[in-house]
What does this fold into?
Amino acid sequence: MNGYRFCSRKGTGVQKPAYNPASAVILRVVERINIVGAGIIGLGCAWRLAQRGVNVLAIDARDAGREASWAAAGMLAPGGEFFGPSALATLALRSLDMYGGFIRELEEESGVTIDFRRSGAIEVAYSEEEACALEVRTAAQATCGIPSEACIHEGRPARFFPDDAMVDPRDLTRALRRACQRRGVSLLEDEQVTKISADGRVWTAGGVHDGSLTLVTAGAWSSQLLAGLPGNFPPVVPVRGHLVAWHLRPGLIEPILRHRSTYLLQRRSGVLLAGATKEHVGFDRTLDEAAVASLQACAGELLPTLAGQVPTERWNGFRPWVEGEMPFVGQLGESSVWAAYGHYRNGILLAPETISRVAAQICA
Ligand code: GLY
It folds into this structure.
């Protein structure tokens, strides 16, 4: 098959998937899986399934991990995302618990170091009214396992969320790519999928890819790829987010800093990010100067050292939103097609939980 970036079974020095007697039954049923969408969730599923002895082909319309996984800041921060008990908050907290082990195993298998930190987060109130609302919210959060404590930040009332964390999603993509390669996953990039059939076959410009099963993990593009297939799956809507970044001296901020919809976090490298807007503009990739300017202004108010500093990077990406904000993870009717998408603002946070659920369901 032309166009494979790596087709590691043919390569040198690349491990074949280890034979695992426990997976022998699985191999008879799921011999080969096509994964459409090679972001963090798609690559993560590819890695886990390959660990279980499944032959995996991952396909992406661009470079692997170049859409939402590349655009995301990588906040693992239920404290800023879930304002009380819900089924999604439960999944998010479970996934956060899984993160340390997930990162350790991935670093070990890939040999790639991942910038992952249990940094905590500080959320600041700018007024008495905001401080009261934050108190009420954090009381509800405490009932679902999101602890926080009152503090003062730069003279302002604030709450510290000790469990919030951060990861560099681009490190995560690099590591997953390498781990997939080592496990013999084939990766086909810059290849548009034109059709998926209910029996698990996938069509691209390069030909038809047989599979006993196809898994769609294509974020905001998922439901359009699934159109015409059986089963009740939710339509997904892209919600654009702009982010900006500055290259600064490392160690300027340790915890995530938040005020309302603005958040700041700093990587170990010193790169400091500010996010994010929420815009309903379809798949328009145009950089919106007004959105960037407003984000910069909010960032400068939260961390005055940023005021007047020109960002070194500005970008946007598309969050996959579904009605109810509960990601769809499962099989489409009785077909050979599965999907995992709709993670909206928390795809990076929910990745370990989603990946292990998909692998467990498919290889049940
Ligand atoms: N998770 C933060 C965002 O989507 O902006």
Q: What stands out?
A: The first strand starts at residue 4 and ends at 7. The first helix runs from residue 24 to 29. The pocket of glycine is lined by residues 75, 241, 275-276, 319, 345-346 (CB under 6 Å). Confidence is low (pLDDT under 50) at residues 1-28.
